Amino acid sequence: MPFKQPDIDTSPKVSDEIRKTTCYMCACRCGINVHMKDGKVAYIEGNRDHPVNQGVLCAKGSAGIMQVNAPSRLRKPLKRVGPRGSGEYQEISWEEAMSTAVGWLTELHETAPHKLAFFTGRDQSQSFTSFWAQHFGTPNYAAHGGFCSVNMAAGGIYTMGGAFWEFGQPDWDHTKLFMLFGVAEDHDSNPIKMGIGKIKARGAKVIGVNPVRNGYNAVADEWVGITPGTDGLFILALVHELMKAGKIDLDYLAQFTNAPVLIDKDTGLFLRDDDGKPLVVDRVTGKLTPFDQKDVQPSLSATHEGHRTVMALMAEKYLDPKYAPEAVAEATGVSAKKIKTIAAELARVAFDEAIELDREWTDFRGNTHSKMTGRPVSMHAMRGISAHSNGFQTCRALHVLQILLGTVETPGGFRFKPPYPKPVEAHPTPHGDRRPGKALEGPHLGFPRGPEDLLLDSDGNPQRIDKAFSWENPMSAHGLMHMVISNAYAQDPYPIDTLFMYMANMSWNSSMNTSGVIEMLTARNDSGGYRIPRIIYSDAYSSEMVAYADLILPDTTYLERHDCISLLDRPICEADGAADAIRWPVIEPDRDVRGFQSVLIELGARIGLPAFMKEDGSPKWKDYADYIVNHERKPGIGPLSGWRGEDGDKTGRGAVNPDQMDAYVANGGFHIHHVPSEAAYYKPWNTAYQDWAVDLGLYDSPQPYLFQLYSEPMRKFQRAAEGHGDRVPPEHLRDRLKEVMDPLPIWYEPFEEQAVDTKEYPIHALTQRPMAMYHSWGTQNAWLRQLHGKNPLYVPQKLWDEHGFKEGDWARVTSTHGSITVPVALQAALNENTVWTWNAIGKRKGAWALSEDAPEAREGFLLNHLIHELLPPKGDGLRWANSDPITGQAAWFDLRVKIERVDAPAEAQPAMKPLKSPVEQGPDTLEWKVGK
Asked: The 4Fe-4S Mo/W bis-MGD-type domain covers which part of the protein (predicted)?
């Protein structure tokens, strides 16, 4: 009987329809194609037309389908009916939830708006949430950056008008040497993977500087296993070597930086003319000249009546033998030979392999150049160098290294993404006036130019609950989210009434001192009331923080709502184009939930905030989608730049287009406006780019500027600490500010190392986020849990042998603050005095709809238990934040510990009491069928 081939459909229909939107599984914000079948999500792939990922999609992005089907999704508004932490809630209607919130918030708005602390997590809509808080009138608003990477953002903006990642990118098409500093895999993962692949295919070299060799560092051609907290010292040793060898770009420094600017010998401030312009000496005429005068040839070495140039001060500082490779080798864990070799490699590629592009361009002085010269060395850095108490100066040092080589905004180097570059002067200063019933006069967050911009009351006390923009953290551009609960508990500088948080898991992985924060959230006054009287929280999932709130406003998942990735906020631009994007509801929620931004719209109207009301008293916007299209931050400028104007034919500037959202959806959820070829490089000084940026609405007028190797705002704060001016810091802070506010980058030992006995606690301890997860969102994801269901403490060979560890062993890890008992694993490619683990894998029992015996709850753990938001007491009775003293950046990575081998417990310690979940536990097997 002949064989009959079975009928097999070898090309089953994947979907009925493709809906294109923007991923939310990390902060890359890649374009995705969501395949729909019978009205449900069947499959997610990358959008090949999208400027960010060009079709590439990682494990997180593909697993987004599991986020919208997660059992941990909240289903209805909740009000607490038992004690905080009990998990005892009652489901309520949205009307009751909104009426409750309006009742609490209206009273505060009208009487004491500063008693509302409104802080949001990694929500990617900060332009809107800050707008809401500004018009509520509270000074107490900030988002995620203060405990993530404010040192990186502020260090870059104060030095060169932009920073890494969202602000710029390597010139992947031309770079020949790429250095990464402190970069884990969770940030910008697809673009970096694509870029590294591109340059390695071309034969370019990659150097990774990180205590841990994994991810990007694992594919680097050379790995520098640096000692945590010493990156700044290593960088300044490279600067020392380059300056000693004369391998710096003198023409670039003279033309585009403040290296030739004269410093007043009496004040340390810039020497200026009557119009306030910094002065240089023209090396042709020998005369004092404004820096921006046409045909000026600034001298880097001139003096004038005892006043010296920034370059002279830099040479004096960095040629000091204390920065020699031999002097820093022991502290950094990097041999003098390796430091010298890397410095020589940087110099060789920058100068011997320089490239030229035949593109004519005109600079801001009116001089025309026939070519664009490039030094093909590029760099990228992230949280690893930022999350230290010396991180701001380290980030500045790295930018100085780039600038000395002439590798910023030149072919082959680091390139800014619109709307950057911007000088500090283009940014707002912070606002914090506390006026009942009134909006703030400007945005909360900003960039102080000097002591006059601090947010202090008439007695010199901080205006903000987190003490941002005070003498304790003068340049805290992102606020101090990690200090909000601690300060509110301590009622320092004052008590608050309501803590309102969005997507900020502050009772678990997003806080230092996790156990202590839980105690603060549940602490009561002598009268029996809670020390923080009211907590409102919004999240899409049953996270650990849900159990400690009084009112829960359930959010949608990212495929069920509108979002705006705006040029006013954190856009998706590339160096060659200004781009923004939307999310839109590709599916409708199957639960009684609402997008948080739309909830804020309704709250603003019901409270009666004028900015949210029409003249007739009716709500100005019906929801967030309405706001995105119809809001104008200033005439002709709104959240989205594409398809503006009544006919949708304008870009950047233009009247409101009621069909704008439809245009974005039809284009795949994004818009991009390309930078002209002649404007692609030298953006801070290129008249073609400046004019393009003005036309697009990024600037109101051209704003060329010099890179700030020497920071005058920092010198102003330093002078105040020396006793000059009307505003001076309290006595106990003066010595610290005089040291750390050096206007030229310096290195100092991290504060925890100064405060603890490093012989008793000899080991550095770090966390990093894995590429497959982002914050805590991924651990409840059925696909991603298979990649990281638990996390060991990785131990280097030296410590492994010293303690006699073997596979399957456990260790007790102890800091000055606490102790944990956790499983260990060997990693050879690790700094010999450092241990580390993945962040946010460990979960508290009862959260995220996981079973109590889930591996995340039994063998997963948090290093956060060992880290305190305060430094060890100094005996002076003061509370010293465990933060960078300049920006307030949380110093997560300063942690020092000791370890010992112990018998394996039944589960990782500390093992906290299970939470009672407001959602049902997920099934053992999560499965569903889409379509027939």
From this structure: 16-72
List Cβ neighbours of 372 (8 Å cut-off, separation of 6 or more).
356, 357, 359, 361, 410, 411, 681, 682
Question: Could you give the CA distance from residue 929 to residue 38 in angstroms, rounded to a whole number?
Answer: 11
Q: What is the pLDDT of residues 268-291, one digit of tens each?
A: 999 999 999 999 999 999 999 999
Residue matched to tokens 């560092």: 217
- Residues 342 and 332: beta-carbon distance below 8 Å: no
CA angle 250, 289, 372 (to 5 degrees): 35
Distance between CA atoms of residues 580 and 822, nearest Å: 43
Tokens 């002067």, residue located: 425
CA–CA separation, 404 vs 177, rounded Å?
16
DSSP per-residue letters across 376-391 = -EEEEE-HHHHSSTTH
What is residue 7's predicted lDDT score, i.e. its pLDDT? 81
Is pLDDT above 80 for 779? no
Which single residue is written with the structure tokens 């700094």?
831
How does pLDDT run across 454-471, given as a tens digit for each residue? 999 999 999 999 999 999
Say how far apart CA 48 and CA 740 lie, in whole Å: 47
The pLDDT tens digits of the residues spanning 468-511 come to: 999 999 999 999 999 999 999 999 999 999 999 999 999 999 99
Q: Is the peptide bond before 713 cis (omega within 30 degrees of 0)?
A: no
Q: For the whole prediction, is pTM greater than 0.85?
A: yes
The candidate with the shortest Cα–Cα distance to 179, out of 352, 346, 5, is: 346
Quick one: angle between helices 150-160 and 391-405, nearest 10? 40
- The answer for residues whose C-beta is within 8 angstroms of residue 178's C-beta and 6 or more apart is 170, 195, 196, 199, 204, 205, 206, 207, 377, 378, 379, 380
Q: Which amino acid is at 383?
A: R
